[in-house]
Amino acid sequence: MFRITFGKGFHVEFENGVTVSTQFGEGNYCNNRNGIERTEMGFVECEDSEVAIWGKEGEWLTREYYHSINEIAGDDVKGSVSPKELLNILNWAENYNDEV
């Protein structure tokens, strides 16, 4: 399932109940943090994004993917995530199994 969130990002929820949120608008931990500019077509673009991961019961999983607390912005989100890194996160989330 896909969700648009506040016009500055999206959620992807997988069959296992894990959701990945990626946000790249003003106020998020990304290059657009201090403001956005729209393209001629009205798109908002950014080289990186903020990402959060949570499970089917709403429990945070971001720190399970990022084991180093120093990489976390302090509130269960990871900033400055590249498109390639987001792909790795999405693959991890799709295959996440909390019964291991």
Describe the structure.
This protein is α+β, with helices and mostly antiparallel strands. It has one domain (2-94). It is 16% helix and 23% strand. The chain contains 2 helices and 5 strands, in the order E-E-E-E-H-E-H. The chain has helices spanning 62-65, 83-94, and strands at residues 2-4, 9-13, 19-23, 49-54, 78-81. Strand 1 (2-4) and strand 2 (9-13) form a beta hairpin. The chain starts with a strand and ends in a 6-residue tail after the last helix. The model has no long low-confidence stretch (mean pLDDT 89).
Put the structure in a nutshell.
This protein has 100 residues and is an alpha+beta fold. It has helices at 62-65, 83-94, and strands at residues 2-4, 9-13, 19-23, 49-54, 78-81.
Major sheet, described briefly?
5 strands, antiparallel
Described by the principal axes of the CA atoms, the overall outline is globular
Structural class: alpha+beta
- N-to-C terminal Cα separation, in Å? 24 Å
Write the H/E string, N to C: EEEEHEH
Largest sheet strand order: 1-2-3-4-5
- Stretches where pLDDT falls below 50 for ≥5 residues? none
Strand portion, in percent? 15-25%
The tally of domains stands at 1
Provide a count of the helices.
2
If you average the pLDDT, what whole number results? 89
Number of separate strands: 5
Helix content: 10-25%
- Radius of gyration from CA coordinates: 14 Å
